[in-house]
Amino acid sequence: MDFTKFVSLLEESALYFARGDQFGDQFEGSRPRRNVEARFRRFCELNGKRPDELSTAERQAFKDDLEADGRLDRQFVAINCWHINDFESAAMWNLYLKSNEGIAIKSTYDRLARAISQAPGRQTGCTFVHIGLVRYIDYSSDEFEEKSKFSRFLHKRKSFEHERELRAMAESPMQMQGGDFIYAKRKPLIGVGAHIPVDLETLIGAIYIAPNASWLELLVLKVMNKYGVRAHVRRTSLDESPLF
Fold first, then answer.
1. 4, β-bridge pairs
2. Number of domains in the chain
């Protein structure tokens, strides 16, 4: 992340979760072809008709409902993204930094889960946070089981496989009416995302300075000291010199 985002993380003691409709991938939160076809068959069964018996209006109604469902979920689900790997990725540094003035936070699944659940005075404004690995598929031929709406945000096209992504996802709360949750009365998360409180010392295993930015190390240490956050600060392995 950029250094300014790191300072924001320390200032807020919170991770930023961007709303699903703020991502650049138009397939974000969508269904692959085979899932849509299965959903269409169920639609036909519920209406007691074969696919060829549906009117043009009924087919359009199915399409409209499908698109509206996708748009709503992209507004109600917010996502925080991580790269999961045993090694540093030069590509991730290039993709996520506008310059070399940035850092990378090293954590683990366990640290992330505990940092969220153990955050002091945790008030997320969300029903819960779900964490899972992204699976990369062919949207023209593969399918997946839709266990929840989060399933759609845990699948991406194979073109993004280099991201090796782990996602934490928060859902906007639903309002109660007569003991039932009312989906239609939910409001999107404020703005284009939400800050979810975390325990910073639990979250941060180590901090790595961006390539060619060793001068940033001292500033990172000073800022961490100001906010009372303790963690190892390390220089990236990408700055190591060859032995020849």
1. none
2. 1
> Within a domain: residue 139?
yes
Q: In terms of pLDDT, which residue wins out, 74 or 154? A: 154
* Cα 188 to Cα 77: distance, rounded to the nearest angstrom: 8
For the stretch 52-100, pLDDT in tens is 898 999 999 899 888 888 888 888 899 999 999 998 999 999 999 988 8
Domain annotation covers residue 161: yes
pTM: 0.85
Instruction: Specify if 61 maps to a domain.
Output: yes
Percentage of the chain exceeding pLDDT 90: 65
Which residue from 31, 90, 93 is spatially nearest to 65, judged by alpha carbons? 31
Domain with 66, as residue range(s), is 3-239
Candidates 40, 63, 61, 64; CA nearest to 52 is 40
- Which residues is 169 bridged to in the sheet? 79, 130
**Cβ neighbour number for residue 202 with a 10 Å cutoff:** 18
Gyration radius of the chain over CA positions: 21
Residue 244 belongs to a domain: no
DSSP 74: H
